[in-house]
UniProtKB/TrEMBL annotation:
Pfam families: GFO_IDH_MocA, GFO_IDH_MocA_C3. This is Gfo/Idh/MocA family oxidoreductase. The keyword Oxidoreductase applies. Belongs to the Gfo/Idh/MocA family. InterPro entries: Gfo/Idh/MocA-like_OxRdtase_N (IPR000683), Gfo/Idh/MocA_oxidoreduct (IPR051317), GFO_IDH_MocA-like_dom (IPR055170), NAD(P)-bd_dom_sf (IPR036291). Residues 132-236 form the GFO/IDH/MocA-like oxidoreductase domain. Residues 2-106 form the Gfo/Idh/MocA-like oxidoreductase N-terminal domain. Gene3D superfamilies: Dihydrodipicolinate Reductase, domain 2, NAD(P)-binding Rossmann-like Domain.
Length: 294
């Protein structure tokens, strides 16, 4: 089996490769020589392609796509032409123009784009009855201090990668939509720089959501944090339930990276994406509206 890693624009494909290398031959393409060198130092057996077209011409059984957000629509269109399964590392869009471009593509049932947290053992398999809920809250703790140094500035730029609101907010919105479905709208959003003064975006943010069922939700994004964790709080009349997702002793397993790749490998075997595009589109709409609002 062969998997093409098309782009290494974030940390995620490096992590994905540590699981994929146990199952498949890797082909890698990346525009930045330093990022490519880091990858090949860890995976010297990977075949290096000089372009996206060259990577796709090797006949991969699947593609993991991780390019800067402004490049996603064009790159995904080329992957879609091959018909092979594709995992688009989150978020697939960070601006209205990017989302409009995705809407013009014919995205088939073996395209997956998701926060890895959906597949974390602490969360996967949870089912709730929305009729029992009063409200929900997702709290994202993920430090963004590396952007304060200028690293991957495109991610921190609102019109390109979406900044903290989008890049970290996707984790909270993903979990809530996974629980309550895609019939959701943004009620409001706000962000602020509380610590990292060199950021182009914010380091803290909040979103207010509402589902068609009437359930309200809040996503808190704390980009100034000594630890990484993700907390869901489910409020019912008789009390509140808390679900915590943490890395634990094995971050690949605890944070859902392995589960995500397992889902991707199932797609390579013929299964549809476990996350319907309808849900992904709803998540992206919330994130883009939040970015526009903030």
């Amino acid at each position: 089996m062969r998997v093409a890693l098309a782009g290494l624009a974030t940390s995620h494909p490096y992590t994905d490769a540590r699981t994929l290398t146990r199952h498949a031959e890797l082909v890698v393409w990346e525009q930045d020589p330093e990022r490519l060198r880091r990858f090949t130092d860890e995976h010297p057996g990977a075949k290096v392609a000089g372009s996206l077209d060259e990577a796709l011409s090797t006949g991969p059984d699947g593609v993991v796509l991780t390019v800067p957000n402004p490049q996603v629509p064009e790159a995904l269109a080329r992957v879609l032409e091959t018909g092979v399964p594709c995992f688009v590392n989150k978020p697939a869009a960070a601006s209205r123009a990017q989302l409009d471009a995705l809407d013009r593509l014919e995205i088939h049932e073996r395209v997956l784009s998701s926060s890895v947290l959906r597949f974390a053992p602490a969360f996967a398999g949870i089912r709730i009855d929305p009729a029992e809920l009063l409200a929900v809250r997702a709290t994202v703790r993920h430090d963004v201090g590396i952007w304060d140094t200028g690293y991957n500035a495109w991610q921190d730029t609102p019109g390109e990668g979406g900044g903290t609101m989008v890049t970290m907010g996707v984790h909270g919105v993903e979990l809530l939509v996974a629980l309550l479905g895609p019939d959701v709208r943004l009620a409001g959003a706000a962000g602020a720089r509380r610590h990292y003064t060199n950021l182009r975006s914010e380091d803290t943010a909040v979103m207010a959501l509402q589902w068609g069922s009437g359930v309200t939700g809040t996503v808190e994004i704390l980009g100034v944090s000594e630890g990484e964790s993700y907390t869901l709080t489910l409020h019912r009349r008789d009390g509140s339930e808390t679900i915590v997702i943490e890395s634990g002793d094995d971050p690949l397993k605890g944070l859902g990276y392995e589960g995500t790749i397992d889902a991707f490998l199932s797609m390579l075997a013929g299964a549809p994406s476990p996350v319907p595009w309808e849900q992904t589109r709803a998540i992206l709409e919330v994130l883009v509206r939040a970015r526009e609002s903030a």
